[in-house]
From TrEMBL:
GO MF term (any one): ATP binding
EC number(s) given by UniProt: 2.7.1.26, 2.7.7.2
Enzyme class: transferase
Pathway annotation: Cofactor biosynthesis; FAD biosynthesis; FAD from FMN: step 1/1; Cofactor biosynthesis; FMN biosynthesis; FMN from riboflavin (ATP route): step 1/1
Source organism superkingdom: Bacteria
Example GO biological process: FAD biosynthetic process
SMART domains: Flavokinase
Residue ranges of every copy of the Riboflavin kinase domain listed in the record: 182-308
UniProt protein name: Riboflavin biosynthesis protein
Organism this protein belongs to: Thermorudis peleae
Similarity remark: Belongs to the ribF family.
SUPFAM superfamilies: Nucleotidylyl transferase (SSF52374), Riboflavin kinase-like (SSF82114)
Amino acid sequence: MPVLVYRDLAELPRQPHALTIGNFDGVHRGHQHLFGRLRARAAERAVRSLVLTFDPLPAEVLRPQEAPPRLCTLDERLALIGACQIDSVLVLRFDQEFARQAPEEFIEQLVHYAAPVELVIGDDFRFGHGRSGSVTTLRELGSQYGFDVTVVPRVDLEAQPISSTRIRQLVSAGSIEVAAELLGRPYALTGDVVEGHRRGQLLGYPTANLRLIDRLAVPADGIYVVQVSIDGSSELLPGMAYIGTRPVFQDQMRAIEIHLLDVTLDLYRRRLTVLFVRRLRGDMWFPSVDALIEQMQADERATREALAQLREDWPPPLTWAILNLAEGAVSADG
């Protein structure tokens, strides 16, 4: 059943909840573990599970010039949370007024509208103006208002914590296979196909130029093995992705270009979700167009070899949540 999405505290049904609070950008394996604990606690207490998240993300309001790029769009975040079998999501608008709330004020509103019987939070949880509220603050308020607090330790992978920050660093470095391990799914970019220079067609490798639909983290420049969904289709098409500034042609603007293997389609104005499988190499300068074409042919051979090595059950099940967005979340107001 799709997750119910609310956009205001006052929209919530007046019934008890077990809930968690956070940005949950990327909905990585640490978040998934937290949601699992939330589901279990909600089931034990016979209440509905509720995830409270924010849009815009706090850093985008408080430090807009320094805010990191997102690991997924809001729609993808909601669909991924729903795929974790959460009953409801509350998306609160984060603005300067919201940021000025004292921890006590925020929890008072939460108690009034969400009737929490338990909050399940990460061990680094902070809340309220200037992040002044801590786990200790929350426990004190829980004693006052009658809700329990369960603290879930951060999940590690190879002795390093799984975090959205770490995943962004991996994506930025082109380490998309390690990023996929932390996410529990391949890293993905979603965007609309726009008009390009049509150089790829002249080179024998027609490409679709992607304009991202959000400020998403873009992998390091280079050539990538990818699988592509068109307009949310469950059919994944094999391809190569190029990210860079096209040094052979001395372009200035960074581009994201997708070439599909073994199929010729008119992709203009279509929406693509690109699943990153592997990085083949970094961006390179070539002394001639012929040298570039020779390398592209080698890249194609390497891409086909990499795709042939994928397991039959690839991609992991959580991936389908971001491809089938229409099924992943339902607005509570219909």
